[in-house]
């Protein structure tokens, strides 16, 4: 069986050490970025031998892919049904694992410069980190559509990309950390009016 980055799965590290190593990998990634992350650095942070890491993960891409999908430091946003599109978006964006959660955003920052150069890493990031979050977001908009909060002529796919796009632009282009105020402004001034489509006029 081949895993998401094309390598054959290796034996798991015994006991709770594997989780400790994954947590250490996320911390090192957030601190140093992917380009400067080394197996030595992760081994030191996890107080493990480099041989232990290589028995389980053949490359740092393997290790990072596992870490960003399984580490408690990169939790998924809560999929809370608040009864409204606005409430769901706030809960998803401002809670644990959301845009205001420092660690997931630091992980993205640590990966962003390498994603366009490392095809295996990009594939793993999309499948293991992004896909579950996109699925939660799709559920938010599907519930809103079922409640009649989204007009038939609204571009739901574009709506779903709007908040992440603005947050990422502010964080990684302008250097402005995501805040609840920014998220509320985008929801109230961009997403909700656009969701109403022609019904707003």
UniProtKB/TrEMBL annotation:
PROSITE patterns: HTH_TETR_1, HTH_TETR_2. It comes from the Bacteria. InterPro entries: DNA-bd_HTH_TetR-type_CS, Homeodomain-like_sf, HTH-type_TetR-like_transc_reg, HTH_TetR, Tet_transcr_reg_TetR-rel_C_sf, TetR_C. Residues 15-75 form the HTH tetR-type domain. Residues 38-57 bind DNA. GO terms for molecular function: DNA-binding transcription factor activity; transcription cis-regulatory region binding. Keywords: DNA-binding, Transcription, Transcription regulation. Gene3D superfamilies: Homeodomain-like, Tetracycline Repressor, domain 2. The keyword Metal-binding does not apply. PANTHER family: HTH-TYPE TRANSCRIPTIONAL REGULATOR RUTR, TETR-FAMILY TRANSCRIPTIONAL REGULATOR. This is AcrR family transcriptional regulator.
């Amino acid at each position: 069986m081949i895993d998401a980055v094309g390598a054959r799965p290796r034996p798991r590290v015994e006991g709770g050490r594997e989780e400790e190593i994954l947590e250490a990998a996320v911390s090192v990634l957030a601190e140093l970025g992917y380009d400067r992350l080394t197996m030595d650095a992760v081994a030191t942070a996890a107080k493990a031998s480099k041989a232990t890491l290589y028995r389980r993960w053949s490359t740092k891409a393997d290790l990072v892919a596992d870490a960003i999908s399984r580490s408690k430091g990169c939790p998924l946003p809560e999929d809370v049904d608040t009864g409204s599109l606005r409430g769901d978006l706030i809960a998803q964006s401002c809670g644990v694992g959301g845009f205001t959660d420092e660690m997931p955003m630091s992980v993205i920052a640590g990966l962003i410069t390498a994603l366009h150069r490392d095809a295996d890493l990009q594939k793993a990031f999309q499948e293991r980190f992004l896909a579950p979050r996109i699925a939660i977001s799709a559920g938010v908009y599907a519930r809103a559509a079922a409640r009649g909060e989204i007009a038939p002529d609204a571009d739901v796919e574009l709506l779903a990309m709007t908040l992440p796009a603005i947050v990422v632009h502010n964080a990684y282009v302008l250097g402005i950390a995501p805040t609840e105020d920014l998220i509320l402004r985008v929801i109230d001034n961009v997403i909700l009016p656009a969701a109403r489509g022609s019904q707003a006029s």
